[in-house]
Write a structure and sequence with these properties.
The protein has 210 residues and is α+β, with helices and mostly antiparallel strands. The protein has five helices and twelve strands.
């Protein structure tokens, strides 16, 4: 089999370069839609935080110095958001399919909680949604072995460890966890990136259907 057939087209600097995917010749059916399920956010409080003291003063907080002495975990209840606050003032949040405004309000709630813990200067800086995870169902089975064989530069497939094959799209940046049932989880910076990546890979996955 030639390199082009396997999806590996060239070497750069002695290392295999990930090639661009071909322009799809088969359109994505309109009945295949995506559902946003998880989002990751980062921002800074603009000050250092005494995480141990914050743990003692906040509700729904967890602090395990034997595992990570530089971070405290806080669980917001309404809406449900998992927050990790680092002593440097860096904060990450893991949340569901909420709007940008709701996530920003949660970040401001975190800053207000830290203000009450003796850090009056705490505020939200550099708020950014860094990753979105969405799911979809292609409604046909996929031969993961064939997918990994034909596109080795784009895939990570270790069936002894995981029952999914990860397909990586370079532009737009997107990682697609692919199950043999045709169910996908897409991880990308934006939903638009996920939709474009799905448009590009649909013919590839269809070509590896059972």
């Amino acid at each position: 089999h030639g390199a082009e057939e396997l999806g590996c087209e060239r070497f750069v600097g002695g290392q295999l370069a990930v090639p661009e995917l071909p322009e799809p010749q088969i359109a994505l059916p309109p009945n295949i839609t995506m559902k946003l399920c998880q989002q990751f956010v980062k921002f800074s409080l603009g000050c250092e935080v005494d995480v141990k003291e914050a743990y003692f003063q906040m509700q729904n907080a967890t602090y395990n110095p034997s595992r990570n002495a530089s971070a405290v975990i806080v669980r917001l209840v309404q809406p449900r958001v998992l927050v990790r606050i680092y002593s440097s003032g860096f904060v990450t949040m893991m949340a569901g399919a909420f709007t940008h405004d709701v996530l920003l309000q949660c970040a401001r709630r975190v800053a207000a909680l830290i203000q009450k813990c003796g850090h009056a200067e705490a505020r939200v800086e550099g708020f950014k949604i860094t990753l979105m995870r969405s799911t979809t169902d292609l409604r046909f089975p996929i031969r993961l072995e064939a997918l990994a064989y034909r596109w080795p530069c784009h895939t990570i497939y270790e069936p002894d460890i995981c029952n999914a094959c990860v397909f990586k799209v370079l532009r737009p940046q997107c990682a697609i966890s692919t199950k043999s049932t045709g169910k996908l989880m897409l991880s990308s910076p934006t939903m638009d990136d996920a939709r474009e990546a799905l448009r590009q890979v649909y013919p590839i996955f269809l070509g590896c259907s059972r």
